[in-house]
Every structure is written in C-alpha cells, then in structure tokens.
Amino acid sequence: MTTPTIELKPSARPLPAAEREAILANPGFGRHFTDHMVTIKWTEGRGWHDGQLVPYAPIPLDPATNVLHYAQEIFEGLKAYRQPDGSVATFRPDQNAKRFQRSAKRLAMPELPVETFIEACDALVQQDQDWVPAHGGEESLYLRPFMIGTEVGLGVKPANEYLFIVIASPAGAYFPGGVKPVSIWASQDRVRAVPGGMGDAKTGGNYAASLLAQAEAAARGCDQVCYLDAVEHKWVEELGGMNLYFVYGNKIVTPTLTGSILEGVTRDSLLAVARDLGYEAEEARVSIDQWRADTESGALTEVFACGTAAVITPVGTVKTDGAEWTQGDGTPGQVTLRLREALLGIQRGVTEDKHGWMHKLA
C-alpha cells in the first residue's frame, strides 16, 4: 500500500512573532497550540490518502460520527527539543509510531506506517519550528498525534473511515514549581485496566476511566492516583498517566508489563539510561504491602514516576486506606535526580546520545 505525501498548505496569517514569544515565555502545558496541524485520511478500500499540513482549526463532525459513540480513538505524546546548535530533534519518534500501531490494532483501527507517522511529525515541527522553545531549559514542543473513527452511523462495528491528526503545543514543566515530590493516593477499589482489556493501548477511554479516582485522590490531598492490579488488588501497576520506578540503593525496579500497563517510552528509556550509569535495572512485580514495608525498613530509598509529559517526578508521600508513609526524607532522591538529568541531557543534546534516540530534522 502506498503511503501519502504531505501537501503543504501553510497559513497566510500565522500568529505574530511578538504574541508567540509572549506565549513561549510561560507556555504551561497543553494551553497553547501552534499555527498548523497535519491531517491524513484513511478510507476502506483506498487506504491512507490526502496528507496535508493546514492551519490549525476545528474539526467538523457529524453528530453520528463513530468516535462520539463508540470511542474508536488513540493518541500519542512525544517532544521536540531545541539543540545547542539551534537545530531541532524529536525523542524516539519511532517508538511512539510503533506503539501507535499497537494501539490501533487493539482498537480495530488501521495501522499508520511508522515512516508516515514520523514524516507527519517532522512536517509539523519543520513548519512551526519557531514554536520550539530556546535551548537551555526544560521547555519543549509537545506533539500530540491522534486518530479517530469518522464513519457516520450508529452500527457497532469498526469504522470504515478514519482521520489521523498531529497538533503541537509548546510545553513548560508538567508540574509547576520545579522538581518537587508528588503525593500519591494508592486506590484499592478503583482499577485502571484489566487483563485482556485496553491497558496497554494509549486510548482516551483509559484516561476517562482514571478521572474519578484522580478526583478521589485530590479530595485526599494527593496529586496523583496509583492503581493496583484488577485481580488481586495488591500489585502496583502505574499512575493515571505515568509509569513508576522503585529505587533500592543501586538497583531500580519498574513493575513488569502485564498487558494492563502502558509500555511507556520514557519507562523503556530509563532502563537503558540506568544501566549506562552503572545501576542494576529490572522489571519485577511490587506489591503495595512491599512498598510500605520496604520504605519503613529503609530498603526502598526512592520512588519516582516517569512519562513524556512529566519526564521524571519524585514521589514523596503515599496514602492508602488506613496508612500513610513518606519516601526517605520527603525530598527528591539522588538517584532520581541523576537519572532525570541524564535523560534530559540526551534530549537537550548536551549528553552523548549512545543509543541514537534523537531524530534530527533535516
């Protein structure tokens, strides 16, 4: 099947430079969007077609559009970073493209070729590269590729038409205020995903399912909710939007992928970065009781969360029904900060990219 080329139809009236620079001075996260977007259509019997870069604009949808009723929707998140020489590079876009294919397969959607996914992201970043924040801080351009079922009709079946879109948003820190530990509510009666479900797909329904538990966490004074497994309600899985890591001195451990945990790109990258730095890094099951006991004994020295948006965020206080504990002295741990600096160094182009993760724009 042929892959579509992306026709460039840039805006004749992009945002004035002064207004763009004012936004970049304090972008926040997901509040502002660049001048353009990339769209590619898929139609049964025709495949992928009509790739275009066009001005950012609303999407007209019929009230009976498939995605509005049966939630055929997947998305990704990756970042573009300004490099020391002024060029721009994205971090591991091939891995996001492959996960996008896995998500599509799980939701009975067409799989976008990896090269087309990367080409679409490149086209948008190239056109809107003035939106990529300057080198020197943690700011980046966050890319959000997504795909929705666009067939009109109420029959419960995979759609016969889809729309793939990439939009971009300049991003500052996901958690404002610098690197400070977040508090966690470990929910023992809400689950994020079940075995055989969609936990390992990046689809909006998983995030919708997390919102009630997140609200319950907030009501308890916590920043994030931690989910346990759906069968025994004892094994730690992940946060609502981030993977977890446990630090045992010179060893770091992340929960084993079970099919109900999202295979994070940052999660995978940190296994390699940790080994590069001389740490032992492994995947293993960690129970909520073990988390508490190992913290209280001092064996578990640090815990942190990781993801594309937040990069690496230390965990401070943990609360469950009838229990509460604090990691270490409640401040960011040395291993957490070292891993965070090492990963950001690669992404920002100030540390050697041993694994060839950075994809530079031509």
UniProtKB/TrEMBL annotation:
The keyword Transferase applies. The modification N6-(pyridoxal phosphate)lysine is found at residue 202. It catalyses: L-leucine + 2-oxoglutarate = 4-methyl-2-oxopentanoate + L-glutamate; L-isoleucine + 2-oxoglutarate = (S)-3-methyl-2-oxopentanoate + L-glutamate; L-valine + 2-oxoglutarate = 3-methyl-2-oxobutanoate + L-glutamate. SUPFAM superfamilies: D-aminoacid aminotransferase-like PLP-dependent enzymes. Its EC number is 2.6.1.42. It comes from the Bacteria. It is an enzyme of class 2 (transferase). One of its GO terms (biological process) is isoleucine biosynthetic process. Gene3D superfamilies: 3.30.470.10, D-amino Acid Aminotransferase, subunit A, domain 2. Pathway: Amino-acid biosynthesis; L-leucine biosynthesis; L-leucine from 3-methyl-2-oxobutanoate: step 4/4; Amino-acid biosynthesis; L-valine biosynthesis; L-valine from pyruvate: step 4/4; Amino-acid biosynthesis; L-isoleucine biosynthesis; L-isoleucine from 2-oxobutanoate: step 4/4. Pfam families: Aminotran_4. InterPro entries: Aminotrans_IV, Aminotrans_IV_CS, Aminotransferase-like, B_amino_transII, BCAT-like_C, BCAT-like_N, BCAT_family. Keywords: Amino-acid biosynthesis, Aminotransferase, Branched-chain amino acid biosynthesis, Pyridoxal phosphate, Transferase. Its cofactor is pyridoxal 5'-phosphate. GO terms for molecular function: L-isoleucine-2-oxoglutarate transaminase activity; L-leucine-2-oxoglutarate transaminase activity; L-valine-2-oxoglutarate transaminase activity. CDD domains: BCAT_beta_family (cd01557). Belongs to the class-IV pyridoxal-phosphate-dependent aminotransferase family. This is Branched-chain-amino-acid aminotransferase. It comes from Streptomyces actuosus.
